[in-house]
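Wait, can you check?
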Amino acid sequence: MQRRSFVLCSTVAVLMVFPPFQALAIDKPEPGLWQFTKKHEIKGIIKQSPPKTHCLTEAKIDNFLDGMVKLSPKSTIGKGGECKLIDGPKIGEKGVNLRFSCVGKLPSNVTLSYRLEDPRHYTTVFETQVSIGKWPITARMILEAARIGDCP
């Protein structure tokens, strides 16, 4: 479970850093130096990671977006493609919603929601729902991103 969760979280982290917005007539963030703050929530326990910074250039954003606009019901993520897109992308002026169904040792449903509050701030919420025996568990990862200046 930990390995699969890591692969899935890593894949989704890429989606969160470079969300699918430009080519789909959605506003996009400004290029520059961005600070990302990640918070994990599971069963009432909250863990916040130290903030990290990344330089997002126009070229990085645009290059990634070219691949994102090709998402279709046949799209998969995860090592070996164990998660299939089942709903979305649902595209609005200020955001995108995606839903995946994952199979394997621990079947789960994954929802990714991206919201651009303004060109200098966005939020991405990644929610995973699994059942272990009779116990349903929901885990959320929230990524807050804010532009803090120009790239060095």
Remarks:
- Strands lie at 32-42, 45-48, 52-56, 76-77, 83-92, 95-102, 108-118, 121-132, 135-149.
- The first strand starts at residue 32 and ends at 42.
